[in-house]
TrEMBL record:
<dbReference type="InterPro" id="IPR013785">
    <property type="entry name" value="Aldolase_TIM"/>
</dbReference>
<keyword id="KW-0028">Amino-acid biosynthesis</keyword>
<keyword id="KW-0057">Aromatic amino acid biosynthesis</keyword>
<feature type="domain" description="N-(5'phosphoribosyl) anthranilate isomerase (PRAI)">
    <location>
        <begin position="13"/>
        <end position="206"/>
    </location>
</feature>
<dbReference type="Pfam" id="PF00697">
    <property type="entry name" value="PRAI"/>
</dbReference>
<dbReference type="InterPro" id="IPR044643">
    <property type="entry name" value="TrpF_fam"/>
</dbReference>
<keyword id="KW-0822">Tryptophan biosynthesis</keyword>
<protein>
    <recommendedName>
        <fullName>N-(5'-phosphoribosyl)anthranilate isomerase</fullName>
        <ecNumber>5.3.1.24</ecNumber>
    </recommendedName>
</protein>
<dbReference type="GO" id="GO:0004640">
    <property type="term" value="F:phosphoribosylanthranilate isomerase activity"/>
</dbReference>
<comment type="pathway">
    <text>Amino-acid biosynthesis; L-tryptophan biosynthesis; L-tryptophan from chorismate: step 3/5.</text>
</comment>
<dbReference type="InterPro" id="IPR001240">
    <property type="entry name" value="PRAI_dom"/>
</dbReference>
<comment type="similarity">
    <text>Belongs to the TrpF family.</text>
</comment>
<dbReference type="InterPro" id="IPR011060">
    <property type="entry name" value="RibuloseP-bd_barrel"/>
</dbReference>
<keyword id="KW-0413">Isomerase</keyword>
Length: 249
């Protein structure tokens, strides 16, 4: 499928909500999607299954799309979690193989999207580079480019991706993508070439969405929305009823 048809706006996903207050801040500030961690051992934003279900329901009630962010690699378990919690996307944030994506696509309803993270190292390497085509064929709807630090950390590291490292990978992508990795309002101009790529769909932010006390902040998220052209700090219309189909066109 072609990746050249843009969505009506750039998506803003804020990641790592742990409280209803985080959901309220994300919705009030103009986010579109909220990442909810489950199956991320030792993760600072980890939720148990009941907590995940509660925050997913709160997100849906505000018009936000809840996204399961996980290191889990059992398709049956992930499908059961998605059914129980009502998440709209499953984001595979570890090094899950294409076979897991294929099994998960078969197990999930058609309107639940699969996001596969591609880990871009600080030296420009990408472990998944040889597998990008296989991930596409297996049923990935959306890629997410994020930083893998030199000490092996992945996910919400706050470490920025060098723009030239991102643009070097873009010709290999066969699906639309979100950009993550230390994004702020201030560094938006550095990614001009990335933002204008036909496959660009939006950004995924954790650190820059937070206040000094650690929760999501309305001014912080609204500033991201303005800088990255996701809005003006006011709520957008809800996402399509079938986000997987919309994103994969």
């Amino acid at each position: 499928m072609s990746t050249t048809r843009p969505l009506s706006r750039t998506l803003l996903k804020v990641c790592g909500a742990t409280t209803p207050q985080d959901i309220e801040a994300a919705a009030a500030a103009g986010a579109d999607c909220v990442g909810l961690w489950h199956g991320v051992p030792g993760g600072p934003s980890e939720l148990d299954r009941n907590g995940l279900a509660a925050l997913a329901a709160a997100a849906r009630s505000t018009g936000l799309l809840p996204v399961l962010v996980t290191f889990l690699s059992d398709a049956g378990e992930l499908a059961a979690i998605a059914a129980h919690t009502g998440v709209g996307w499953v984001q595979l944030h570890a090094y899950q193989p294409p076979a897991l994506v294929r099994a998960l696509r078969e197990a999930l309803p058609a309107d639940v999207g699969i996001v596969k993270v591609l880990h871009v190292q600080e030296n420009g390497g990408c472990v998944e580079r040889p597998l990008i085509g296989a991930y596409d064929r297996a049923g990935t709807d959306l890629f997410l480019l994020d930083t893998a630090t030199g000490d092996g950390r992945i996910g919400s590291t706050g470490a920025a991706l060098a723009p030239d490292r991102v643009t070097a990978l873009l010709p290999r992508l066969t699906r639309p993508f979100l950009l993550a990795g230390g994004l702020t309002p201030a560094n938006r101009p550095a990614y001009e070439d990335v933002v204008h790529h036909p496959g660009f769909r939006g950004i995924d932010v954790d650190t820059a969405a937070r206040t000094t006390t650690g929760g999501f902040g309305v001014p912080q998220i609204a500033a991201l929305a303005r800088a990255w052209r996701t809005g003006t700090g006011t709520r957008h219309a809800p996402l399509p009823d079938h986000p997987r189909l919309e994103l994969s066109r």
